[in-house]
Specification:
The protein is 23% helix and 22% strand. It has 183 residues and is of the alpha+beta class.
Length: 183
């Protein structure tokens, strides 16, 4: 057993620094690095014992302290976030008609034309028309509602004072038309 040199490699971290230590029993005179004892500073190191012929090296060998060598810290690569490339949607084009919305004064229904995902035109298919006042309000309110719809290219529009029911009906019908368009 004396001719066989036992070398064990232990890998671990001490204070965040990786250290590699080798162990060779002192009775074989290998000159290898030995593992320092794990004792607190107040404890004294055990006295060296001479090995007995019947004992194994791990039982009889007392490790001798060695001054640790400096080991460069291992750099850990930070994961790079994946960049996802959005799949381009086909531009939305077409004419989309909203739901007919019943108001206190009559139905309101909107139709919009979309090119490349933007509203380029809007028109009223149905408006309240029971009285002369309805026709007068429609002449004032509808051009403004069309302008707001095209300008916003969404349902984010302002209503018209004095035509509250028509404005709300326009908005609700516009929202349903945009939903049909997928916007």
């Amino acid at each position: 057993m004396g001719a066989v040199k036992i070398v064990a490699v232990v890998a671990g971290t001490v204070g965040g620094v990786g250290a590699i230590l080798a162990y060779a029993p002192p009775h074989q005179g290998g000159g290898g690095i030995t593992v320092p004892p794990t004792s607190s500073p107040t404890q004294s190191a055990p006295a060296a014992q001479s090995p007995t012929p019947s004992s194994t090296p791990s039982e009889s060998a007392t490790p001798t302290p060695v001054t640790p060598t400096k080991v460069a810290p291992t750099k850990i690569a930070k994961p790079v976030p994946r960049k996802t490339i959005p799949v381009p949607k086909a531009p939305i084009n077409g004419t989309f008609t909203g739901n007919s919305i019943s108001t206190q004064y009559g139905p309101v229904q909107v139709q919009i034309d979309i090119v490349a995902g933007k509203i380029i035109a809007a028109r009223a298919l149905q408006l309240p028309s029971a009285t002369a006042k309805d026709a007068e309000l429609n002449k004032l309110a509808v051009p403004y509602l069309i302008q707001e719809t095209v300008k916003a290219s969404s349902a984010d529009i302002q209503g018209v004072g004095g035509a509250t029911y028509t404005s709300q009906g326009w908005y609700d019908s516009l929202v349903s038309a945009l939903a049909r368009a997928g916007l």
